[in-house]
Design goal:
- The chain is mainly α and about 200 residues long.
- Helices cover about 80% and strands about 0% of the residues.
- It has 9 helices and no strands.
- Helix 1 packs antiparallel against helix 9, helix 2 packs antiparallel against helix 3 (about 60-90) and helix 5 runs antiparallel to helix 6 (about 135-150).
- The protein starts with a helix and ends with a helix.
- The model has no long low-confidence stretch (mean pLDDT about 95).
Length: about 200
Amino acid sequence: MDLNKTIAKVGSGIVTVTVFLFALFLIINYSMGSFFVCLILPLGFIMMTAGIHNECENDRKVAANIGLTLAAVYCTFIMLVYFTQLTTVNNEQLTEQAANLLEMGKCGLIFNYDLLGYGIMALSTFFTGLSMKAKNKADKWIKALMMIHGVFYFSCTFMPITGMFSKMSSDGDGLGGRLALVAWCVYFLPIGILSFIHFRKR
């Protein structure tokens, strides 16, 4: 058994399943379910990214190394964010000030860390896609989807600086934000599926 390929394939499967469940939980507005799958997604993403890193040729190692390093940074941010939601926020009586900082729906500090994490994930996919030499149509799709996904870095990183999300949280019911996340899931789901197919064929 090729353990490198198996781990990468399992990681791609985790990405596919968690992104699908994330979209489902967003649609039915089940926040605890979405928090839980977002705690698992980064692990699958690192496994998938490491698989692509392992396959890349020597003249693209720098891009692959950057992609894998950024995947680890993304994992750290996101696991801290959602572990906080599932533990401290869910189990403790928070003061108003603490709630404003820690509750995801308040669009405070923890929400901004979440966006920063996903911005770093976007950079990770860009460099990971850059490291690939596509050898078939499916690989070309993975590469293109990953590199285009890198554009999300700018919105995830710079839009919170404007205070836009804080204003949206005070003026609306969060439906627009959920729909935007569902749209992201629809975009990212093919990356997981195609990566699973890629590693299964290899």
